[in-house]
Amino acid sequence: MKTFTPIAAAILLAASGSAFAGNNTATTLQTGVGNNANVNQAGILTNNNTVMQVQTGFFNSADASQSAENGSMIMQVQLGALNYASSTQTLGLSNTASVLQVGVANTAKTKQTASGLSSASIVQTGFLNWAKISQTVSLLSSASISQNGIGNSAKSVQFLSLLDSSTISQNGALNNADSWQSGILQSSSITQLGLGNDADTRQVGLFNDASILQDGVGNQADVSQLGAANSGSSSQFGFFNDSYIGQVGVGHMATTTQVGAFNNALVGQLGLVGDTATATQMGIGNNAVIFQ
């Protein structure tokens, strides 16, 4: 009696799952040696989705999965060696995920769950960069990560978000950036140039805006917002500067600017409405603390 080969068993299993799926399209194009690409569009209520995966080089790996998803798209392109890309879309509608990696040993992951009309985009060039975007119960939200260099890491999370926007851009080496958003019509922007900088934004509420710009070595910046219509901005130029902005309430505005080295600025705004704070430091080893 003949038995199923592993390939035949896999085809039978996929056929049984795809009885509830339709009009999905998957395309893979591979040039090189030892590349691996996987696509899963089987399962109930998985319809009208598209996956495109392109790999050129050596030992790249890509995974794409769409489950109970409708009208969504995944595009993953890898040029180089030992890169890994993974995109997952589940229980959503009309989402887009795109990954472009050029270089060696970069890792990119996107995950969209119970979301609609949202977009996740990762672009990495260089070596050993790592990026992840997670969108959960997100509608009309967008997150993008762009990295150029060596050993940079970035993560963007949008949870229970509507019309939120997050942008992370890194050029250099060993920079780290994290963005976390939950709410409506919030904006986060992080730009890093240099070596070993660290930036974090956290936003919960409505209409909040956070921006961080770092140019130099070993700078640290944090903007945290809870409330509505708050604005926090941090700019750092130099070495080992440290800035923290914390806002709780409505309509607060805070700006820190640091030029030099080993400067420290702390701004805490805890009043109900409309405080304004500005801290500007030029030189070495200055300290500023503002509470409102």
TrEMBL record:
GO biological process: cell adhesion
InterPro entries: Curlin_rpt
Signal peptide limits: 1-21
UniProt keyword annotations, A-Z: Signal
GO cellular component, one term: pilus
Source taxon at top rank: Bacteria
Homology family: Belongs to the CsgA/CsgB family.
Name listed for the protein in its UniProt record: Curlin associated repeat-containing protein
Organism: Microbulbifer agarilyticus
Lineage of producing organism: Bacteria, Pseudomonadati, Pseudomonadota, Gammaproteobacteria, Cellvibrionales
